[in-house]
Amino acid sequence: MHTLLTRRLLTLAAFAFVAATFATPLYATSITYPETKDDGTVDNYHGEKVADPYRWLEDASSKATSDWTDAQNLATREYLDDIPGRDELKKRFEDLLNYERIGVPYELAGKVFFTRNTGLQNQSVYYVQDGLAGEPRVLLDPNTLREDGTGAIRSVSYSENAQYMAYGISWSGSDWQEIHVRNVETGEDLPDVIEHTKFTTPAWTHDHAGFYYSRQPTPGTVPDGEEHYYRKLYYHRLGDDVSDDALIYERPEHKEHGFSAAISEDGRFLIIFVWRGSAEDNEILIRDLADPDGEIMDLMVGFDASYAFVGSKGNRLFFTTSLDAPRNRVIAVDFLNPERENWTTIVPQGRDIIKAVSHVNDQLIVHSMHNASSKLDAYDLSGKHLAQIKLPTVGSLGGISGHASSDRAFVNFASFAYPTTSFSLNFETYELEVFRKPNVDFDPASMTARQVWYESKDGTKVPMFLIHKRNLVLNGEIPVILYGYGGFNVSLTPVFSASRTAWVEQGGMYAIPSLRGGGEFGEEWHKAGMLEKKQNVFDDFIGAAEYLIDQGYTNPSRLAIQGGSNGGLLTAACMVQRPELFGAVLTQVPVVDMLRYHLFTVARYWIPEYGSSEDPEQYEFMKAYSPLHNVVEGEQYPSTMVTTADTDDRVDPGQAKKYAATLQAKNGSDKPMLIRVERRAGHGAGKPISKRIDEMVDIYSFVMKELGMVGVAP
After folding, report:
1. Which of 539, 540, 648, 649 is catalytic?
2. Which of 98, 314, 348, 585 could disulfide-pair with 119, CB 3.0 to 4.6 Å?
3. Does the pLDDT of residue 24 top 70, yes or no?
């Protein structure tokens, strides 16, 4: 799989690691870090030798790595626990999170399904009731799966007659799931259990007999590490042994191709999505389930654009696509005449990007985005615009729930000072009516948010949200957290955050730029921040920091940057490129070893976004910004905390560990270089609220200390 010439000068087994041993730091610092042995590893990349001295930390199962992690956590805890005001900060986080949260209701066969969290429950509970006026009852409580709340539900689907609930359980934050089936009436689980799945949601056939799903290979049937690939699509009939599940589709010659399934609302069509890693372009296959002899046929192939199924009416199939429309359009395809020349545009591409479309009340409800905020419009099936649906304020829609034959839809909406609220859509007036409104312990009138624009290094105009207290005085001393992501077509839009609200209450500002690489302005904006153009993302982020300083909001000693996953790459890369620009850096669950990231877990799926060091041309631009390989010995780096989790099977934690060890060895300032490794947690999804609160306290107390904020204001 990996063809690099690797020379191991010394093996890990040659070293004995003692957790109690501490190294003398090379440069003056207030912290004595645990010793990290240099195992002498050197790789040869296309004729260039590159050292990887802490390669042994990639082995999460070794005692040496475990001991190192324990020692690092101990050093981090000693530093963080000594910060004053932590108890008050935790109390405020708990107060802000202690409110009822209702998920988007879903109506099906006379029943209403929804999730509810009373406030501080580790996981939201699944409820069902008969109609909107029925009495809710608990259908599934994930909090009973594990005492510490680390059992989470990652996928849910219901049979069309509302008799069964298929749900995927994830343990300790892992992406791996096991699918179970529950009888909705009795609350009892069927014996059906499907293991070795991830990133799949069962698609029920309308005879309620079973569902389509995707499964990974059973460990041991492929080489170690390859179980993340070679995905296959199956059909499971209730009551059958999993080994008897019918194989529906596979592409064994393309191990990085993935498959997922959907069933049209009328039950007639099986839609198969074919994707290649993180690439936006995909394929669509289709089978007419009404035809007993129907074969799977190609509908949209060639990976020439993105395609998403919206719904169907008779033989007409509706899709959103980026084909000839980087900001997306809605098209109709006649199943009986599916050739491309017969496709018709229903909703053309406009100035704003179309994010999602729902087929409700025999209409197309189009969720688009204008300057990183949501818009909502209704069209008939011919493309006639029926109404623009007014939203409460500048903010974000969190999903639309409804059926083609239903005259009711539900949506969730949120903004920076507007906690997530459930609405029903009145199709007579096209107005949103409050269905469930939370009661949160804060004054929304005390906060304000606005959007500014600044120029990046190459002159590109980039928008940025600024969230702060009203009447904030620009004195150049405002503590600011600059947060970013900038990748994988992900959009950062206005949502409510308890931690951000607490930060603003303390007199801080939170800044969120819409960096290239994201999805705020369509596929062209995304492509401008990937592969060889990745440096644009870092330039955009650095430009945001410079704007905040130049405009008199803050100064480097009062400016922190934060990002996770791909955003962790962002903050790490910007720190090593411009260390003098920041007072504190939060690098969470990061991708930081750009030469080896693709060798672990599912990371080969990200090659379309980042590239691969196995390619000589891509190696050059990846090494140029790879944070791990650009830490300079003796450089004065700002205060840094790296976070990861021991069971993160999305971004391998070895990257964060090697990066932290490198910073500790090479940093020339007296600022802390900490690493916080969460136990029994993954990349972030499904993390229990208790762990989230503890992490928030550590992060924000660290930032407050490093930016010179004294105490916690009442």
Report:
1. 648
2. 98
3. no
How distant, in Å, are the alpha carbons of 213, 230, 385, 477 from that of 233?
6, 10, 38, 56
Nearest to 381 by CA among 318, 314, 315, 307: 318
Report how far apart, in Å, the C-alpha atoms of 65 and of each of 424, 481, 536, 601 are. Answer: 52, 32, 35, 18
401 band by pLDDT with thresholds 50, 70 and 90: very high
CA-angle at 586, arms to 394 and 693, nearest 5°: 70
The residue among 406, 440, 474 that closes a domain is: 440
Shared domain check, 689 and 557: yes
Q: Give, in order, the Cα–Cα distances in Å from 17 to each of 21, 69, 580.
A: 8, 12, 35
Asked if residue 577 and residue 522 are part of one domain, the reply reads yes
Active site residue 228: no
Q: SS3 breakdown of the chain: % helix, strand, coil, rounded to 5?
A: 20, 35, 45
Does 565 participate in catalysis according to the annotation? yes
From 322, 368, 565, 701, active-site residue: 565
Q: What's the DSSP call for residue 267? A: S
| pLDDT tens-digit readout, 106-163 | 999 999 999 999 999 999 999 999 999 999 999 999 999 988 888 899 999 999 999 9
* pLDDT at res. 1: 32
446 classed as catalytic: no
Q: How far apart are CA 415 and CA 467, in angstroms?
A: 11
Task: Please check the confidence at residue 298 and state whether its pLDDT lies above 90.
Answer: yes
Domain end, chosen from 423, 440, 457, is at: 440
* 493 Cβ neighbours under 8 A, 6+ residues apart: 369, 372, 373, 374, 395, 396, 520
Tell me, what DSSP letter sits at residue 676? E
Check 245, 683, 698, 701 and give the catalytic one.
683
Tokens 């411009």, located at residue: 578
Token code pair at residue 81: 């626990």
Under a CB-based contact definition with an 8 Å cutoff, are residues 177 and 168 in contact? yes
Domain interval for residue 499: 5-93+442-706
Strand 559-564 relative to strand 584-588, pairing: parallel
Q: Is 386 helix (H, G, I), strand (E, B) or coil?
A: strand
Q: Which residues contact 353 (CB under 8 A, 6 or more apart)?
A: 327, 328, 368, 369, 519, 520, 521, 522
DSSP state for residue 9 in the 8-state scheme = S
Count structural domains, the chain: 2
- Whether residue 88 lies inside any domain: the answer is yes
Contacts of 703 (CB under 8 A, 6+ apart): 479, 481, 560, 562, 584, 586, 709
